[in-house]
Amino acid sequence: MNNLPSPLRTALRTSLWALLLLGGSLALHLFTYSTFVVDNDLDHQRNFNDGYKVFSLTIPNELAFCDEKVPLERLDVRERLDRELLVNTYWQSNTLLAHKRAGRWFPLIESVLKREGVPDDLKYIALIESGLTNVVSPAGATGYWQFMKETGLSHGLEVNAEVDERYHVEKSTVAACRYLKAGYAKYGNWALAAASYNLGQGGVDKQLGRQKRDNYFDLLLNEETARYVYRILAMKEIIRDPERYGFHLRKKDLYAPYRTRTTTINGPVPDLADWAIANGTDYKTLKLLNPWLRDNRLTNRENRTYTVLLPAEGFDSAPAED
Fold this sequence. Notes:
Elements: H1 6-39, H2 41-51, E1 64-65, E2 68-69, H3 75-90, H4 92-116, H5 123-130, H6 149-154, H7 169-187, H8 190-199, H9 201-211, H10 223-240, E3 260-265, H11 272-278, H12 283-289, E4 306-311
Antiparallel strand pairs: 1-2, 3-4
């Protein structure tokens, strides 16, 4: 080093001292942190309290369900809404996934609701029923709208071993609209129509007769139905104004609608895997886009015409940037 020019020697010495000081600081920090984690419970607790914050929420001043006023001036109503807002705000992974999936499926569901003449708020029923996934409940309720087999059949859905339209998002949404419109025609308000979607019209009728009231917010109901409309309201609020509840999503974070093209089937298909390959895709993608096809073949004895979705150009492309 003595052979080096004086300015260079000075710079090297300075760098070495800086490295030594940094190394010592890191070693001290690691030692302190190790001792702190293992032995110093008081400091550990203080660090936790300083670094981790959970806040209570503010309840909206006004709220409506399908343009019908929610009576937030009532103590019971405010506390029930508070519960569902807290559950969905602090179950972050579930609510984030719900919001992401809504980006894909709400445009289709919204278009059906508009076409069928029912309020847009009813799309949140599918969200709270299934999380916009094709789940099957222990009782056998199936699909985004959670139809039982008999209810699906009675509202125009085909349900058998090879075709189950409870898994067909568009057709099951039409069926849900029919059910909800019948409830509205009977009860005269959408909150009770939504409650009947959960409890059944017979169950709602029984409680209306027993309690001699005609308003959802006045009824004493079983736990699930008592929470039902509030769960809808909470998800509506969080998805409508996510940043108020601590959720920050960019447009590209949402799951975009699938890019698809359509074709028709009007006869039997002995092997859907072969059919998928012949149509430029594979069995997995065919079932992803058409989960209502429940077998590996389509007998189609009645020669019905089915519209099938297939991947279009750009199907696998990443979502657009903000």
